[in-house]
Amino acid sequence: MIYTADVETLKQKINQLQTEHRDLDDVISRLSQSSAQDQIQLQRLKKRKLYLKDQITILERQLTPDIPA
Known about the structure:
Blueprint: H1 4-33, H2 39-63
Helix pairs in contact: 1-2
């Protein structure tokens, strides 16, 4: 059972991660369009973005109650 305070904490963390994910998306988009692309930097940013997406998914699953089959 997740308590209300825990739910709010999870929601805040999800929002924080989603904001960082969106910001990374913008940075990746800008870097991809520039003429002097740093492929290693782009790869690191994309890897970080995937990590954030995984973390968001994990936290969202914690908010969803298990439904017995």
